[in-house]
Write a structure and sequence with these properties.
The complex is a heterotrimer.
Chain A lengths: L2 E2 L20 E2 L4 H6 L14 E7 L5 E7 L1 H4 L4 E6 L10 E3 L4 E3 H8 L4 E2 L5 E7 L2 H8 L3 E6 L6 H4 L14 E2 L11 E9 L2 H6 L3 E9 L11 E6 L5 E5 L4 H12 L6 E5 L15 H11 L3 E4 L2 H7 L6 E9 L5 E13 L6 H7 L9 E9 L13 H19 L3 H8 L18 H9 L2 H4 L7 E10 L6 E7 L5 E5 L7 H13 L6 E5 L16 H28 L7 E3 L2 E4 L3 E4 H7 L8 E6 L7 E11 L6 E11 L6 H20 L30 E6 L21 H13 L5 E2 L3 H14 L6
Parallel strand pairs in A: 3-17, 11-12, 13-32, 15-16, 19-20, 23-24, 30-31
Antiparallel strand pairs in A: 1-2, 3-9, 4-8, 4-10, 5-9, 6-7, 12-20, 13-18, 14-15, 14-17, 18-19, 21-29, 22-23, 22-28, 25-26, 26-27, 29-30
Chain B lengths: L4 E3 L4 H11 L3 E4 L5 H7 L6 E4 L9 E4 L2 E5 L4 H5 L2 H6 L1 H8 L4 H4 L4 H7 L6 H7 L3 E6 L2 E6 L4 E3 L2 E2 L6 E7 L6 E8 L10 E9 L6 E9 L6 E2 L1 H7 L6 H14 L10 H23 L11
Parallel strand pairs in B: 1-3, 2-3
Antiparallel strand pairs in B: 4-5, 5-10, 6-7, 6-10, 8-9, 11-12, 12-13, 13-14
Helix pairs in contact in B: 5-8, 9-10, 10-11
Chain C lengths: L5 E7 L2 E7 L5 H8 L18 E4 L2 E4 L12 E3 L12 H8 L9 H14 L5 H7 L11 H18 L1
Parallel strand pairs in C: 1-5
Antiparallel strand pairs in C: 1-2, 3-4, 3-5
Helix pairs in contact in C: 2-5
The chains are: A alpha+beta, B alpha+beta, C alpha+beta.
Amino acid sequence: MATIDKPDAGAQTADSRKYNVIGTRPIRHDGTDKVTGRAKYGADVKLTGMLYAAMLRSPHAHARIKSIDTSKAEAVPGVRAVVTHADMPDPGSRVAELGEGAVNLRHLSSNVLARDKVLYKGHAIAAVAADNVHIAEEAANLIEVEYDLLPPVLDVREAMQDDAPILNDDVRTESLAGETGDKPTNTAMHFRYEKGDVAKGFADAHLVIEREFETATVHQGYIEPHNATALWNADGHITIWTSTQGSFTVRQQVSELLQIPVSKIKVVPMEIGGGFGGKISVYLQPVAALLSKKSGRPVKLIMDRASVFEATGPTPGSYIRVKIGVDSKGMISAAEAYLAYEAGAYPGSPVNPGCMCIFACYDIPNGRIDGFDVCVNKPRTNAYRAPGATNAAFAAETVIDEICESLKLDPVEFRLNNASKEGVRRIDGVEYPRVGMWETVDAIRQSEHWKSPLEGPHRGRGVASGFWFNCGLKSSASATVNGDGTVSLVEGSTDIGGSRASIAMQLAETLGIAAEEVNPTVGDTDSVGYTDVTGGSRVTFATGIAAYEAACDIKRQMVERAALIWDVDSQDVHYGDGTITGPGDKEFSFKELAAELHKSGGPIIGRGTSSAANQGGAFGTHCVDVDVDPETGKVEILRYTIAQDAGTAIHPSYVEGQMQGGVVQGIGWALNEEYFYDDSGVMNNASFLDYRIPTCYDVPMIDTIIVEVPDPEHPYGVRGVGEVPIVPPPAALANAIHNAVGVRMRQLPMSPPAVLHEILDKQSSGNGQSS
Amino acid sequence: MRDFEYAAPASLDEAIELFTGKNGSAKALAGGTDLIDHVRTGRLSPDLIVDIKKISELNILENSSSGFRLGAAVSCNRIYRDETIVSEYSALADSCRIIGGVQIQSRASVGGNLCNSGPAADTTPALIALEATCVIAGPNGTREVAVEDFCTAPGQNVLQSGEILVELKFPPRQENSGSHYRRFIPRYEMDIAVVGVGASVVLDSDRETIVSARIGLGAVAPTPLFAESAGDLLAGMPANDDSIAQAALEAQAAAKPIDDMRGTKEFRVHVTRVLTERVLKAAVARAKGESVEVAIGH
Amino acid sequence: MMAKKRVVTTSINGTETEFLCEPRQTLLEVLRDVLDLTGSKEGCSNGNCGACTVLLNGDPVDSCLVLAVECEGADIETIEGVAPTDGLHRIQDAFLECAALQCGICTPGFIMSAKSLLQQNPSPSEDEIRFYLAGNLCRCTGYDKIVRAVQEAAKAKEEVTA
């Protein structure tokens, strides 16, 4: 492995010189396996005697299941097991904390295998394990299900109406204040946050703008479909090999759903082909386990791409109303928002984080936010990269742009003047520690991009900012010193984007050794301590803290061991930069002392955990130039610059990669991605052909500016970087489109037909007023 | 995937016999880029798949004074790597270069694209513009059908039981002629045409007047359309923007699209005019011997 | 009355390889499940993501859209055959040095397509790279570093041949 020079000057990694490892760009430890095809992902698992499984899924969006007859499937030669909900215990309506928020277990169970109702097209009903996948598929199609069809409801506002079809009889509207509604409804939650005197804030305003927005349902779009291979051994132990964002949450979900103690379940996290929040919930793991139990053989179950779209993920479509008032000096005086998010089949949309993020970039004295979590006949929504925040930022940041346009204010200056800072209290009540919102806006102001003129007809520039919390949660790591002076690190965070490297680098920095001298491994649930999901932009932060603690534990033991060898008081031994020194010029390099360990008292193993640390949150500001074809409404992205606060960039290449990847997902969401349903609730575009994620021919290079405002909660100042880059792109693009052709887009996606419609509308109205 | 038998005949007669014997439950496999997906998803359920790539007549790629012959199974990448096609039958090369990604282009054939008979097939408007004729072989011998008459409904065509599309014949390229195919898609690659337009024009020797023009439209009707009146309108007109705008309006009038996930009716009608203008301008420029820089996907 | 299995003889990564398959098995399924060459990935099964890209007689194809029985006599190259016995191919090196992968599921397909591109066009422009690789989807990187890696690999070849 080699450490390479920084490939570009885009990264402004301040203070990186004070570190030896942090801020450098070593080759990732798992890299060679991943460029040679040797890395084993979930679908690559092969076990002796393994069966292949397939699922039967609902063709209807809303129906009551009258009966399921599996006899014809069971009679097919080569079929070894068939399971339905009847094989799943009823977990009751208990609510359990499953590492990604509280979940009603009966809802989770019914989502895995439908119980009495199907609530969306693609809802899993039964599964078949057979000698090969073709037999399993054919047999699954022979399962006979009788349905009573019910009318589907697909639109979030229609679902909130009193006469809407009700999806779940057990759902009542709950409020933050603890009130519960008295009749079945689709509106599962009503969140409300208030601060200051909203009426007075608007009364004092010089300008108030209120707008409505709609955003489409979109999917995480990871390239690897869901998968699970399970072996239910004769001794009652279950092993599950799967691609997941969190092996411990899979273990807990399977434990709760199958009512088996966690001690009987081992989850082996395979390499994972993308998740973005969508590979936290279980879909296949309990089913594969049940099929294994019934057949006595290991069973592999892989989802097809259409089912990935129809039955997993997505992030909610939404209806949002935003009202912002500013005073004569261009300072925000009041803000109000109403957010209704699709939960999909069961409650649990990210409307609450949407509420907390919508005005988070700004210091707002008076505000009120209402959020509604609403069931519709679409797949149960799941987290997607800063869940809830992108929809919200699209609304708020385009209203801000309109205010700036009306008052002839520079949108960057406006953001600088109103930026959230340390001590500012959000409308939802949280007071900020040191944060870098202002700095990211300033970085855009100072950028070559912002300073350069944009010329040509139908071209425009837009800016937008975004916020995401980032979380801490729990992580574990252990590290063993090897005789050759290397360290084997076992940690529990599945590596989706190079986190083995960023965690190993923090261990190496702490010990004063090279990144290449650490061998990181992601352990299974029996090999490493409890670790929460790879999500919430938490891994480099929290598992980094665990690795740091493990390194500190090693340092402590190394000092004691040196003292023992030298026969001196450990108070007189010091550890600095990979060297252990004692009285009278006594010195061991890390490697030298490592070589002595077996002769002097045995192995040294460091352990570390993280549980209390909370991140300060991350901000980003984006600038984009577009060219809009006025005859077709098609948007071409000419140039894109993202400035983001990374706290401290551990491995700048992978920080840039998170920023670039988030931006391009945001571009897809902004321009072309959406679920197309027909009136019966059937998704018409459940493929990568018509669910249009960006190709590399759709986007330019994405320029990155890494801003470093260290997070005081982390020993090296790390902030999570994974999620916030997806937040601003739709708003930045909408603002750029307006700047280019004078139309305000208030729906996502801003696809060519939608943009052209607005352009033609503006031309026919003739007065150039679009708003 | 459902079970099926596979055969790879080496001769046309053998293939026709296989198709005739199966009475409609056999499907031809050329590039397989549509067929294999359709079998996998259950849209098609053949008992027999006949791989036609080993039949020499279906692999012909030949230019002569009597015109150009393109075997039905020739892959897209063989087509756009052929210099004669690129320079003399440009619209065909244009369309082959943008079907799927390179992986699809290694396998997909123009014949397969035509026989799949989708309304949005990229190569068909180009074939219409280039006045291609389909050569069809069957148990009762060989017959020829003008390409604009080949498709009869979405997914349906004139092929009878036992018949195979063998090749496409193109008339010799005329002096001072040029052609182009372009489509509108929401992304810049890897999409199905929302509107596709193929056009060819022949100019007078002074290169100022249009002698004749042919325009093919995709994705705006149940089958690819020959916008005959729009092309005829251009005959005798000066090769300028005004004439082109008139023809584009005429083409737009021929478009009878539907609303779907790929585009609204309103949008398709509008873009038919816009794209026809752009494509005709490029075809005229090529006819004048100018090199046209095609920004693919734009 | 299932269709009979067939013996297919191919050359895979330079080694003559015989396998038994049903007509309905795709090349991807045979590579992964029969021959244990799991480096080719299944992302969509309908030719839209490119994760299963292999070179068939030198041309890039989606192996999910090729029947294994079609491959009689064919020359197939998969990601497992790209690296030389010692070390890595320059495209693989470039992907590592440029951090051109995050989750890595699309990486084998991208490397196969990039290899095909550089065989045909040793010094492609950024636009040509982006156009050629559009049949390979990546959801993690935003493509920036992938395009740079291919540029680096092209440069590395120029240096080798210079």
